[in-house]
Amino acid sequence: MKEVVLHIEDSAFEKFMGIIDICPDVSVWSTGEGVDIKSIVDICFASAVKEMIDDNALKTPSDYTYIMQVVLEDQLKCGTLFVTPDEFIGYLKILGIEKLPSRSSLYRTSDTILGSYPNWTFTDQPNHFEELRRKNIARQFLSAFNRYKRQQ
Fold first, then answer.
1. Closest CA to 28 of 41, 14, 42
2. pTM, two decimal places
3. What end-to-end distance do the CA atoms of the chain give, in Å?
4. Burial of 11 (0-12, 13-18, 19+ CB in 10 A)
5. What are the CB-based long-range contacts (under 8 Å, 24+) for 75-81?
6. 76-132, pLDDT tens digit by residue?
7. Cβ-count burial of 80 within 10 angstroms (0-12 exposed, 13-18 middle, 19+ buried)?
C-alpha cells in the first residue's frame, strides 16, 4: 500500500473526488486545508520505540542502532525517514522520544554490523546470546511497528 499526499486546487477537487469514487482500491483518509501530515509511519514508529523503552528492550544507548539499521535497510518498506545517525536522533526528537542515544554510540555500533538483517554478523564478535539479543531488538521493533500499522 502507498500513501500519497496531494495538493488539489479547489476548482479541481470535485472532479478529482469523482475519479476516486470509481476506483474501489483507493480510499481518502482526510481532506481539507492544513491536513496533519504526521504520517501513520511516524505514529507507528514512535509507538514501537516507546513500547520497547517501556519493556526495557533497549538496554544500552547503542541498542537504538539496530532499529536505525533496519530502517536504513528499508525493512519497514516506507522509504527514507533518515540517512545518518544525526538525522535519526533528530527524527526521534521530533517523535517525542526523550531517552536518546548519542551520535558516537550510533556511529560506533553501526560500524560493527555487517550484512543485511536478519543475517547480520558483527565485527566485535559477540557471543551467541548477545548476537541473538541484537537481532531480536530489530525483530521486536519490526513486529511492534507492523502491529501498530495494522491497527491504524
1. 14
2. 0.75
3. 13
4. exposed
5. 75/117, 75/138, 75/142, 76/41, 76/45, 76/142, 76/145, 78/41, 81/41, 81/45
6. 888 888 999 999 999 999 999 988 999 999 999 999 999 999 999 999 999 999 999
7. exposed
| Tens of pLDDT, residues 14-67 | 888 888 888 877 767 666 665 444 588 899 999 999 999 999 999 999 999 999
Q: Which residue has the cell 470535485?
A: 14
The amino acid at residue 75 is Q
Locus of grid cell 539479543 = 133
As a three-state string, the secondary structure of the chain is CCCCCCCCCHHHHHHHHHHHHCCCCCCCCCCCCCCCCCCHHHHHHHHHHHHHHHCCCCCCHHHHHHHHHHHHCCCCCCCCCCCCHHHHHHHHHHCCCCCCCCHHHHHHHHCCEECCCCCCEECCCCCHHHHHHHHHHHHHHHHHHHHHHHHC
